[in-house]
Design goal:
Jelly Rolls, 5-stranded antiparallel sheet, 47% helix, elongated
């Protein structure tokens, strides 16, 4: 049997190298997977796992360069040397070209920077850094049409990185033919779209652009509230109506909306909190009001698009309401006319008001007025309605 034992030992002996290869291959596969997974998020740990791997080396070096740039310093020599070594060992890597392009930008050599960054992008078409730097370079040169492809690529991969381009795109949109080019980019990048629309909202002349870009799910967006206020304040009621219809705003502004915490939109109640007072809507309940009595202030308002006619404003308060503390004001937007003041004399109020034919948009506001002596007033607005004259409720 010794011969058999020896033969078995011999067979086991030659199997060890094969087993060792399999084990080493498994370890290498695990190490590769770990490094690939950690290089972007935790490059230092990836570098510790495999110090000679180019990916964590590049990530660490680029991180050092980025930190230096934020502090207004030149790239650290050791980081540049690490990237140079990777470039020698990995001739197809994009990062060395990225760094060279960045250095060319810093030196003011835009043409060379563009060449290097485009070369980096050819090596790595998914490079976020290359897309960002090229978009920034082209926008600074007013080459917006060429920059759109890079902005779009950034938006699909990393939306937050594109927000800084919103101002330039808003300006570019005002050029003839730009809308058809920019709209698809904004459609794939919600954060950038929001920023662009917010900038256009402040420009009364951009109404056609906003109407073209608005969608039915924009009804409660902050930019739409601002855009509506700007257009009504400028007297462009028709433009505001078209924009509201395009954005899917219901109700038409011919009645007061019900209040609710967090509710938004251009034709809803807005409750104001400031150093002068606080208005807070309670879900399914009243609006809690606290007025500190130090200065006149608006506590709530509501934009309306009432047709000309006669109306009655009815409101009810719970708790003590000192005479002369609160009043309703109805202002005609975009006309410069003084507001109609409706005093609140107690807990239950019923006032008549009229809307003139030249008052196409209105704002109803609840104001608190300072008395002879400052005093804090706390109460609740439990009900308010605006109905046509002759209506029972």
């Amino acid at each position: 049997m010794p011969g058999q034992g020896g033969a078995g030992g011999t067979r086991l002996w030659w199997r060890w190298p094969a087993a060792s290869v399999l084990v080493l291959a498994g370890v290498q596969a695990v190490r590769t997977a770990v490094v690939e997974g950690l290089s972007d998020s935790r490059p230092a740990l990836a570098h510790a796992v495999w110090s000679s791997h180019p990916k964590p080396t590049l990530a660490l070096a680029l991180g050092e360069i980025g930190t230096a740039a934020r502090e207004g310093q030149s790239p650290p020599p050791q980081a540049l040397e690490a990237i140079r070594r990777v470039g020698l060992s990995e001739p197809l890597a994009a990062e060395p070209l990225l760094v060279a392009g960045t250095q060319a930008l810093a030196a003011g050599n835009r043409k060379e920077a563009e060449r290097l960054l485009e070369a980096a992008l050819r090596r790595d078409p998914r490079s976020t850094a290359a897309h960002f730097l090229l978009a920034d370079l082209l926008i600074r040169q007013q080459r917006l049409a060429e920059a759109l492809g890079h902005v779009g690529a950034l938006g699909r991969r990393l939306g937050a990185a594109t927000i800084g381009f919103a101002g330039a795109l808003a300006d570019y949109l005002r050029q003839p033919g730009a809308l058809a080019k920019v709209a698809p980019v904004l459609g794939n990048d919600p954060a950038l779209r929001q920023q662009v629309l917010e900038r256009l909202a402040n420009d009364p002349a951009s109404t056609p652009l906003l109407v073209a870009l608005a969608r039915p799910d924009d009804a409660d967006r902050a930019w739409l509230v601002r855009a509506t206020d700007v257009r009504l304040g400028a007297g462009n009621v028709e433009g505001a109506r078209r924009l509201l219809a395009r954005a899917g705003v219901s109700g038409g502004g011919t009645a007061l909306s019900s209040w609710a915490p967090g509710a938004g939109g251009p034709l809803t109640w807005r409750f104001i909190t400031s150093s002068a007072g606080v208005a807070e809507a309670v879900a399914g309940g009243p609006v809690r009001l606290v007025y500190y009595g130090r200065e006149d202030t608006a506590l709530a308002d509501h934009v309306l698009l009432l047709p000309a006619g006669s109306y009655r404003l009815r409101s009810s308060f719970a708790g003590k309401v000192p005479a002369g503390t609160f009043e309703w004001r109805l202002a005609c937007l975009g006309t410069g006319k003084p507001a109609t003041v409706l005093p609140i004399g107690g807990n239950d109020n019923d006032s008549a008001l009229s809307v003139a034919p030249d008052c196409a948009a209105q704002k109803l506001s609840l104001w608190a007025r300072m008395g002879d002596f400052p005093q804090t007033v706390s109460t609740e607005l439990s009900r308010v309605s605006l109905v046509g004259a002759g209506t029972a409720s």
